[in-house]
């Protein structure tokens, strides 16, 4: 399945950090999301915390949950995003995603 940053709402100059790797702009984010090595993904959201950003029509959002890809076991994840109103549209400006894996 092709992931479109246009349909997912990323700002043209958005920044995403995925598992410690930084991607800047819609094209780089789209390339990362479409290169992920799985065919299916299911998210189970545990909590969502939202705060307005003072003086802006914007929000910071933290999501905790689990995701399951293909035949893998579920993994916990956390994601923090900022959403701003740009020219009358709410768009993702920042996205930080991390799996809850413990190595060591």
For the report, how would you describe the main beta sheet?
A: 6 strands, mixed
Radius of gyration: 14 Å
- Secondary-structure element pattern, one letter each: HEEHEEEE
Oligomer: single chain
Write out the strand line-up for the largest beta sheet, numbering strands in chain order.
2-1-6-5-4-3
Structural class: mainly beta
Strand percent estimate: over 45%
State the end-to-end distance: 34 Å
How many H/I helical runs? 2
Annotation, overall tally of beta strands: 6
Q: Can you give the helix content as a percent range?
A: 10-25%
Ranges with pLDDT <50 over ≥5 residues? 1-6
The coarse overall form would be: globular
Residue-averaged pLDDT: 89
Protein architecture, described:
Helices cover 13% and strands 58% of the residues. It has 2 helices and 6 strands; from the N terminus they run H-E-E-H-E-E-E-E. Strands 2-1-6-5-4-3 form a 6-stranded mixed beta sheet. The protein is globular, with a radius of gyration of 14 Å. The termini are far apart.
């Amino acid at each position: 399945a092709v992931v479109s940053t246009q349909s997912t709402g990323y700002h043209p100059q958005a920044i995403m950090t995925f598992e410690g790797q930084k991607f800047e702009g819609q094209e780089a984010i789209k390339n990362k999301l479409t290169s992920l090595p799985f065919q299916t993904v299911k998210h189970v959201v545990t909590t969502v915390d939202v705060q307005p950003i003072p003086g802006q029509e914007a929000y910071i959002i933290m999501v905790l949950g689990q995701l399951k890809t293909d035949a893998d076991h579920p993994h916990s994840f956390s994601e923090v995003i900022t959403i701003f109103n740009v020219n009358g549209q709410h768009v993702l400006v920042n996205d930080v995603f991390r799996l809850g894996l413990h190595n060591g």
